[in-house]
Design goal:
heterodimer; A: 562 residues; alpha+beta; 7-stranded mixed sheet; 21 strands; 21% strand; elongated; B: 327 residues; alpha/beta; 6-stranded mixed sheet; globular
């Protein structure tokens, strides 16, 4: 640990990155195989590998308590002033320890061992006991760096890239190999060791280490088609997930894990998806989207969001929102990484896999010109999706990169949340159903003001369901046909524009309104206002049509596929 | 003897006398020449010969009254109160004085700025007994404890030699009064030629006039720095003067060098915590040596230091004085 601490001191005194790389490379070369991975991880500023979920969770208060115990000749107020004046826990400990501590320092392995113990206990008394044993004997320099690792404030100016360069230089291997291995396995320590053993090509093959997600750039309406042939998928408004599956064999039980885009383990939030994935017959890593899905349609993202942030999902919650997992890419199969294959090839492999119920394959289409793309876009909107994903069939999967191989195509699409005020029967197939609805926004005095009438958009099942509801809510029937209903049903509607209108009291009418979905998650009190309609009207005036307008109404789906 | 805090500075009412005043007053004692103490001219200013020379250069002319170290003099207030005043070395910079004021058997000691570790350019501090001690507390926290001076001087010389050997110009950042001339003297003692920024050089001329020897210190001339160490004030860090020097190593010499943040604050490649101020241990030693029953603190971590003294059973409090934190 002493050499590590000295290195940190030198790195802080060095501004030239080339010199930092040289210092680290020399340092790494001198380490044995046991210390090398630990040191490499420590140089990222954290105690464990990036893919490792453990945290030491030692807060300011715990460290402060240790300081009070370590420096009994100083009163707590003076210690607090000292921490405030220095601004960094590690530095402060080091300065207070001047002319104290022992000559000999623990090894990296020993320090790492205590870090693991700190991560393993949740009891603060136990953490305090571990710190009280680890910290007091350390010399000032080692103490400083140890506390900095605990507090997460290393500040040695080593980026991931510089560290990768140092590893490549230390073992004389190509930087690209190091970067790739690091990207794949998410443990710079393992990468450093594999680099030394000339074994980088096998890094990252292990299941249950999440890979970075391929990220998408943006395609703007009107841009030239990016490639000759564009693979098109509808952009799903769910939660991006990476599935790792090891089916059960005679030799052992299987395992399934789901990781979020931030590489968090979200397995326990989606037990029904996990159960279905467990029925797969071959080991794989796949990329896809978890969707709330009922009656052949995606449900609002909000319904799905309730699942996140829960560590455990019981059967009741699982039954409340039916989920599917839509796969759209394959990263590994049968123990082999396939990310370097072109998308067309990966997709072909994905299509050969037999999928259990509830695990779906994304629908793909191909567009060779802008007209086809627009058609697909409109269909995506009609399907309740927010746009398209355009993918280059020839491109490999690049984990963690926002490249131009995937493009998201979203038009800034304004929608309104409205409440139904009147209904009437439809025509033809829907003659017996109350399928045509008049809807309103809230006026400045709280009164509901109609802004349009829509004829379709819901599924037959939904229309049957709402028809029953509307019958119950009916307050008055005009001419035996139009029913005024109690305003309780909230809808999200899309539209192509807004016009001034003398027909509605609101003064506005939506052009070609379409019902996107029932918003039964939204109370009537939260529907949009006339003010918002007027604002959209102003905005759209100069914009020609809705698709070209600039502002995004906000989708709120942070985890959705981008 | 009543001590008051006035907007102009610390004030001894019975003597109508200010200590290091911030505004023009009738009569004042000046502890040393740093800009956060020599802030304004008084009608009559008492100071050591070195401090008078510095104040004359920095503030201009007035009725200076010169008193050497250890030579008591008498001051009388408007009501006839008499006090015996003695300047003693404070060990801070050239000419810096501890001020001992005795009246009616009561002794007040004002430190101005003080340090107890030795310097090559000013005599070591002499701490007398006092009843009340008014002390600076720039480094009045236990995190501020400096390494031995001999190590720090060696570091200065090492940095200079190492840079020169590598074809770089060693550039030391240090205030014109105090650190700059001290670093120049350390370098000279090791036989390293020095070029000094104008502000530092003007001060070195004053040091020379008081018998401190600088055999090879010349004013900085553009393009003539090869083989020489350069000493500049920290404020010159980003001046064109330094930008014109392609290969250089910037070394900040300051007590604040204990903190890593100083790399950025000074734009430095190396930090040497050689200070002109007392560290925590020295401040505690100063309080003990003075035997003071009551301690008033100013500057830097005044409140923290007063609190720390109080927990040690000393009657201490911080004075509500506003100062810059120039070292």
């Amino acid at each position: 640990m002493k050499e590590f601490a000295r290195l940190c001191r030198e790195l802080r005194a060095t501004r030239k990155t080339s010199q930092k790389v040289a210092l680290v490379a020399t340092y790494l070369q001198a380490l044995d195989d046991e210390c090398l991975p630990i040191a490499a991880r420590f140089l990222t500023g954290g105690p464990f590998a990036a893919r490792d979920e453990r945290t030491m969770s030692v807060g300011w208060a715990t460290l402060f308590r240790t300081a009070v115990a370590m420096f009994p000749e100083l009163d707590p107020e003076t210690l607090r002033d000292s921490f405030r004046a220095v601004g960094d826990m590690g530095e402060c400990f080091g300065l207070l320890q001047v002319r104290r501590g022992r000559e000999d320092a623990p090894t990296l392995t020993e320090v790492h061992g205590v870090f693991a113990e700190l991560a393993a206990t949740r009891k603060s008394a136990e953490k305090a006991r571990l710190l009280d044993r680890l910290l007091p004997p350390l010399d000032p320099l080692v103490l400083k760096e140890t506390v900095k690792l605990i507090a997460g404030s290393q500040r040695i100016g080593m980026s991931e890239l510089l560290l990768e360069q140092a590893i490549a230089r230390a073992s004389d291997v190509p930087l690209a190999d190091v970067k790739r291995a690091n990207l794949l396995c998410g443990d710079v320590g393992e990468v450093a060791l594999r680099a030394r053993r000339r074994d980088l090509s096998h890094a990252g093959l292990a299941l249950f280490h999440p890979l970075g997600f391929q990220l998408a750039a943006t395609y703007e309406a009107g841009d030239a088609l990016p490639w000759e042939r564009v693979l098109v998928e509808e952009k799903l408004d769910g939660i991006r997930g990476q599935a790792h599956v090891q089916p059960a064999t005679e030799r052992g039980a299987g395992r399934v894990a789901l990781y979020s885009r931030s590489l968090d383990d979200i397995t326990r939030a989606f037990p029904e998806i996990v159960a279905r994935l467990a029925r797969l017959s071959l080991p794989l890593i796949a990329d896809g989207e978890i969707l709330a899905f009922a009656n052949g349609r995606a449900l609002p993202f909000a319904r799905l969001q309730r699942r996140l942030g829960r560590k455990l999902v019981d059967a009741a919650l699982a039954g409340e929102v039916p989920l599917v997992f839509v796969l759209y890419d394959l990263l590994a199969a049968n123990g082999e990484l396939v990310i370097d294959l072109p998308l067309a090839e990966r997709r072909r492999l994905l299509e050969t896999i037999e999928l259990p119920d509830g695990i779906l394959l994304s629908r793909t289409a191909r567009a060779a010109d802008a007209g086809a793309l627009e058609e697909l876009f409109d269909r995506a909107l009609a399907n309740g999706n927010e746009g398209l994903m355009l993918k280059d069939e020839r491109a490999p999967y690049t984990p963690g990169k926002r490249g131009r191989a995937w493009l998201k195509y979203k038009k800034a699409r304004a929608t309104l949340d409205v409440v139904v005020t009147a209904v009437e029967p439809g025509h033809g197939r829907r003659a017996g159903l109350l399928s045509d609805v008049t809807f309103a926004v809230r006026g400045p005095d709280g009164a509901l003001l109609n802004v349009g009438k829509a004829y379709s958009g819901l599924t037959d099942e939904e229309i049957e369901q709402t028809t029953r509801l509307f019958k119950r809510l009916t307050e008055k029937v005009y001419g035996g046909r139009v029913r005024a209903v109690r305003p309780e049903v909230v809808l999200e509607v899309a539209f192509d524009g807004i016009q001034r209108s003398a027909r509605h009291k609101s003064g506005f009418a939506l052009r070609f309104p379409r019902i996107l979905r029932l918003r039964d998650d939204k109370p009537v009190a939260e529907i949009d206002t006339l003010e918002r309609v007027a604002e959209l009207y102003e905005r759209l005036l100069g914009a020609g049509d809705l698709g070209a307008s600039g502002a995004d109404p906000g989708s709120g789906s942070a985890d959705a596929a981008e | 003897m009543r001590l008051a805090v006035r907007p102009e500075g610390l004030y001894l009412e019975d003597l109508d006398l200010f200590l290091d005043p911030a505004a023009e007053v009738r009569c004042a004692l000046l502890s040393h020449g740093h800009a956060d103490h020599a802030r304004a001219l008084a009608g009559r200013m008492h100071a050591t010969p070195e401090t008078v020379a510095i104040a004359r250069a920095r503030l201009g002319a007035t009725d200076y009254v010169v008193h050497g170290y250890g030579a008591p003099f008498e001051l009388r207030g408007p009501d006839g109160t008499a006090a015996r005043v003695t300047f003693l070395p404070s060990g801070h910079v050239l000419g810096s004085a501890l001020v001992l004021i005795e009246a009616d058997g009561h002794r007040l000691l004002y430190t101005g700025d003080v340090k107890l570790h030795p310097s090559l350019t000013c005599p070591a501090a002499v701490v007398p007994q006092a009843d009340v001690l008014v002390t600076e507390a720039t480094f009045g926290l236990p995190v501020f404890r400096f390494p031995p001076v001999s190590d720090l001087r060696a570091a200065v010389v090492d940095e200079a030699r190492h840079a020169l050997d590598g074809g770089e110009v060693p550039v030391f950042l240090g205030y014109a009064l105090g650190k700059g001339p001290e670093v120049a003297k350390i370098l000279q003692s090791a036989g390293i030629p020095v070029s000094a920024h104008g502000a530092v050089y003007r001060m070195i001329e004053i040091y020379r006039s008081f018998g401190i020897d600088y055999p090879d210190v010349v004013p900085y001339e553009r393009g003539r720095v090869e083989g020489r160490a350069l000493v500049v004030p920290p404020s010159a860090r980003n001046h064109a003067m330094l930008a014109a020097i392609k290969r250089k190593r910037i070394v900040a010499v300051t007590g604040w060098a204990l903190l890593d943040a100083s790399y950025d604050r000074y734009g430095a490649d190396a930090l040497i915590p050689l200070s002109d101020h007392a560290d925590w241990d020295e401040l505690l030693a100063l309080v003990a040596a003075s035997g003071a029953r009551k301690v008033l603190t100013t500057h830097g971590h005044a409140a923290s230091f007063a609190h720390a003294l109080a927990t040690r059973g000393v009657d201490a409090r911080a004075l509500p004085l506003l100062h810059g934190d120039e070292e």
